[in-house]
Design brief:
The chain is built from four helices and no strands. By secondary structure, it is mainly α. Helix 2 (about 25-40) crosses helix 4 and helix 3 runs antiparallel to helix 4. The longest helix has 22 residues, at about 85-105. The protein is elongated.
Length: about 110
């Protein structure tokens, strides 16, 4: 009973710390983790197809490497708009998976 009384007593609760603010690095790391999980499930043909569409989006007028605002759509990727940083992270993941695939082929 004493345990429950202590648990319900606000004086003994640890002080809550505010959440750590999102930094550019944390946002980008989150994008990389998401796209790694997603793109790892794709076959090499889909990865190459999406990489080609990403290149066209990166070259389009008005593209910017913004962190959070979802303004850019990639044909055949999904039905959502994405931030520039998210798409840059996807491109990095696709390059890394391509390198990984080629290294596996050489073993």
């Amino acid at each position: 009973m004493d345990f429950w009384r202590r648990m319900m007593d606000d004086d003994h609760l640890p002080e809550r710390q505010p959440p750590e603010p999102l930094s550019d690095e944390r946002i980008t790391a989150g994008y990389r983790m998401y796209w790694t999980k997603t793109a790892y499930a794709w076959d090499a043909g889909r990865r190459k197809h999406i990489a080609g569409h990403l290149a066209a989006v990166f070259e389009s007028p008005g593209f910017e490497d913004n962190l959070l605002e979802r303004r850019f759509r990639v044909p055949d990727l999904d039905d959502q708009a994405h931030s520039g940083a998210s798409l840059q992270a996807l491109a990095e993941v696709l390059r890394a998976l391509d390198i990984f695939d080629h290294e596996e082929d050489n073993e």
